[in-house]
Amino acid sequence: MTDKLSPLAVIKNPEKFASVFLKILDKDKKLEPFAWNRAQRTLHQERSGKDLVLKARQLGISTYVQGEMFRRTVTKTSTTITLAHDAETTQKLRRMADRFYMNCRFNGIQPARKYANATVTTYPEFDSVATIATAGSVEVGRGDTYSDIHGSEVAFWPDAEKIMAGAMQGGNPDIILESTPNGSQGYFYDTVMEAIDGDSIWKLHFFPWWFDDEYKLPVPEEFAIQFTKQEKALIAQHNLTPGQILWRRSKIRELKRLFPQEYPEDPVSCFLTSGNSYFGDTASFFTAPMNAQYDPTHDYYAGLDFGQTNDFTAMPIIDRTTRQMVDLLRVNRMEWKKIRGLVVDFYKKWHCKAVMAEMNSIGSPNIEALRAEGLTIIPFTTDNWNKAELMEDLYDGIHDGGLRLMNIPVLRREVNTFVSKQTPTNKWRLAASGKGHDDTVLSLGLCWKCCYTAVTDEQIDRWAKGQATTEDINDDLLEYMANSQGITIEKAKELLKFEVTVAEMAMVEEEDDEEEINDTVGRNWN
User: Fold this and answer.
1) Containing H/E element for 150?
2) Do 202 and 326 belong to one domain?
3) What per-residue string of b and e applies to 128-164 under the rule 16 or more CB within 10 Å gives b?
4) 61-116: pLDDT as tens digits
5) CATH number, residue 339
């Protein structure tokens, strides 16, 4: 019986406190004890203090956070703030907090509270203050030091970055920012992407729709379901039932292309691109095996895009024999010598026949250093014109050429958010949407081009076997560069000379500015 329990036995156990002292309305609007569901329990167990929650609808994440913040304000000194994306949600959260208070009784005694208006509630026994407001002003949240911050539907906030900067300016608050996705732009999207990259103070928690056990339909007896390839993959990866697959089909018919946003299945595709993704619908092309092994009877090629500080050095590998991507190297924030060492190891791991590397800016001296290590490298100078051609070839490879990609979150994100933008001068530019990266996309384009480049297999074999002098190789590459980019041999020589001069200067400057290593090597892509 509840009235025989001491409060001390439960106040330090959040889940027990919720089930004993808190009441919620169920989906039928009936008052019942707050028993945590699977998503709520998982989030509590995995909290870090700086938490991002990307979720499907109606999983009870806001309810969990509000219940836990209420427990803290009535059991210890706390200054909490909850910010919702609109006035309606603010009122809903306020009613939830009032419901917690009205039903939080032990032998008929409630926690004492002094002020309780539309925004602020105080609990004088513990000198606690709880604020619930709408994130409609950049000034909301400023001027106080908070112990706990709850941001609800942050992807829909106006001026989210400024609001969070003000709320976090004092102390070291425990923060949960939760939201359903809302397009591939904005503060929440950028922060989630940084967390996926591993370069963030935030920990990402992803809760897809199947965390709600009620998202299923009855399966008629003797009803034979023919599963699609994508459905079979979901069943294998997440142990979904036929009833869940039928529910999914019904929701897709209802919501169409909005389904991944409202009921996400992975933390990348759920962010629908605002504007048109250059590569279109690629969901069915991320099917390459994730554990491929080197086969000496196959031919492997690589693409290489250099980056050190803000960008990444990215190097995908494609098995030309099967037309499947087999691996990805993606690193940054380390000195160039170490990056080149990882590139060499990756090249040797897959016994690559050749690498096509971007030689703009810092590329040229890195290419020369890698050639000295014995790598066969085909240089590629990128401009708006040939970048468009490179991406067109990659598009054709994905949609019509049988190319299959690995289901790596960072790769899916960059492919899905790669867009064609019109500049103020009415020219079109291919690049990542918002503040995103396109290193893996560009290097993948180079890799695909390397598989089917104008440089012949015979030439590459001759280089690799040491049957050509450096002068022979340079002549072959100059001829390829001139033919593929529509320029003369003399122009190619001038361009190579200019790129090397500029790049050597840039390398000196960048190597003087070493930063902390943030290294994502081989199959550690998330």
Assistant:
1) strand 148-152
2) no
3) bbbbbbbbbeeebbeeeebbbbbbbbbbbbebbebbb
4) 999 999 999 999 999 999 999 999 988 899 999 999 999 999 988 777 788 888 88
5) 3.30.420.240
Residue 268 placed within a domain: no
Tokens linked to 18: 């919720």
Tokens 């604020």 belong to residue:
131
**343 within a domain of the structure (yes/no):** yes
- How remote is the C-alpha of 412 from its chain's centroid? 9
Listing DSSP states for 324-345 in one string gives: EEEEEEEEESS-HHHHHHHHHH
The closest of 168, 165, 173, 150 to 85, measured between CA atoms, is 150
Average pLDDT value for the chain:
83
The answer to whether 283 and 399 are in contact (CB under 8 A) is no
Q: How much is the pTM?
A: 0.62
Domain end residue (candidates: 141, 173, 207): 207
pLDDT, tens digit, 9 for 90 and up, residues 282-326: 878 899 999 999 999 999 999 999 998 888 999 999 999 999 999
Cα distance between residue 122 and residue 268, in whole Å: 40
The number of distinct structural domains making up the chain is 2
b/e map of 435-474 (b: 16 or more CB within 10 Å)? ebbbbbbbbbbbbbbbbebebeeebbebbbeeebeeeebe
Two tokens, residue 72: 């803290």
The type of residue at 478 is L
pLDDT surpasses 80 at 398: yes
Q: Show the 3-state SS of 420-483.
A: EEECCCCCEEEEECCCCCCHHHHHHHHHHHHHCCCCCHHHHHHHHCCCCCHHHHHHHHHHHHHH
- The residue among 190, 207, 224 that closes a domain is 207
Q: Is pLDDT of 176 > 70?
A: yes
Structure tokens at 87: 């006035």
Residue 118 belongs to a domain = yes
Residue 54 maps to which CATH number? Answer: 3.40.50.300
Confidence of residue 186 (pLDDT cuts 50, 70, 90): confident
Say whether both 167 and 302 belong to one domain: no
Is residue 35 domain-shared with residue 182, that is, in the same domain? yes
Residues 302, 197: one domain? no
**196 and 309 housed in the same domain:** no
- Looking at the structure, do residues 33 and 161 belong to the same domain, yes or no? yes
Domain presence at residue 271:
no
Parent domain of 373: 297-418+434-516
Instruction: Kindly report, residue by residue over 323-347, the tens digit of the pLDDT.
Output: 999 999 999 989 999 999 999 999 9
